[in-house]
Design a protein that fits this description.
Shape: rod-shaped
Mean pLDDT: 85
Oligomer: single chain
Structural class: alpha+beta
Strand order of the largest sheet: 1-2-3-4
Order of helices and strands: HHHHEEEE
Helix content: 40-55%
């Protein structure tokens, strides 16, 4: 057995616990923990915002593409291809043959310009030009295909 330490002034066999800087370490630890939580939650929030923004951009691009393909087919008098751009609801209202007859009887479109997609109402303004230079603005209402998720033309007014 070790002998007990001698009287006053003798060094203890172990070091005393440090007392200075204790609060600083506590606050640094809490700050690091808060930063980790913020990065995890903030990163998830940023990911959600990124998904929403990219989803809106995808709707705009698909809406412009569907409208452009529809009008390009009309200009080229490929009425079957234009019919293929229609949503299921529009196809139920009008058969391919009825659509082709109706569109062939309407004034021919010589040129067009597709505007920006309104992502709230899913509409697109399209400026059309007829032979002879007469112009008009048409409004395309879009719908989403239930199987592919792509945008389709549902109505033109």
């Amino acid at each position: 057995m070790p002998a007990p330490p001698h009287g006053p002034g003798v060094s203890p066999p172990f070091a005393a616990p440090p007392t200075e800087g204790r609060n600083t370490r506590l606050w640094l630890g809490l700050g690091a923990g808060a930063l980790a939580v913020l990065l995890c939650c903030g990163g998830g929030g940023a990911a959600v915002v990124g998904l929403v923004v990219s989803g809106v951009q995808a709707i705009r691009e698909q809406g412009r593409t569907a409208s452009t393909d529809y009008y390009r087919a009309l200009v080229e008098r490929k009425y079957g291809a234009a019919y293929d751009q229609l949503c299921d609801e529009a196809r139920k209202r009008e058969s391919r043959a009825e659509f082709e007859r109706r569109v062939a009887a309407e004034p021919q479109i010589a040129d067009f310009r597709v505007g920006d997609v309104d992502t709230v109402s899913l509409t697109v303004p399209v400026d059309v030009t007829y032979p002879g230079g007469r112009q008009a603005r048409q409004q395309v209402t879009l719908g989403q295909d239930q199987q592919t998720g792509g945008m389709e033309v549902c109505e033109v007014s």
